[in-house]
Amino acid sequence: MAVKIRLTRKGTKKKPFYRIVAADIESPRDGRFLELLGTYNPMVEPAAVTLKEDRIKYWLGEGAKTSPTVQSIFKKQGVGLA
């Protein structure tokens, strides 16, 4: 099973709120996921981000890939990508 760390969209129309999740590559964007790793709220200034860094490092160590958007969020937050 290939795992990807990506965003799932929550919130209402024109007021997005995202969860950062570890999910199987084949599952849909807002579908089933393996673990909730954090949140991302772009509607506040500056954007609010919460992360479970220990779990993120675990999944990266297991071979999970990140989406480009999540990778940029991690880079801004200083989460070390191996």
Description:
This protein has 82 residues and is of the alpha+beta class. The longest helix has 10 residues. It starts with a strand and ends in a 5-residue tail after the last helix. The model has no long low-confidence stretch (mean pLDDT 92).
- Counted by DSSP, the helix tally is 2
Oligomer: single chain
User: What would you call the shape?
Assistant: globular
Separation of termini?
Answer: 20 Å
According to DSSP, the number of beta strands is 5
Q: What is the CATH T-level topology?
A: S16 Ribosomal Protein, Chain: A
Largest sheet: 5 strands, mixed
Specify the CATH homologous superfamily.
Answer: Ribosomal protein S16
**Weakly predicted, low-confidence segments:** none
Q: What spatial order of strands do you see in the largest sheet?
A: 4-3-2-1-5
CATH architecture: 2-Layer Sandwich
Broad structural category:
alpha+beta
Q: Write down the overall mean pLDDT.
A: 92
Strand content: 35-45%
Strand-and-helix sequence, N→C?
Answer: EEEEHEH
Helix content: 10-25%
* Total discrete domains: 1
Give the C-alpha Rg: 12 Å
- What is the level 1 CATH name? Alpha Beta
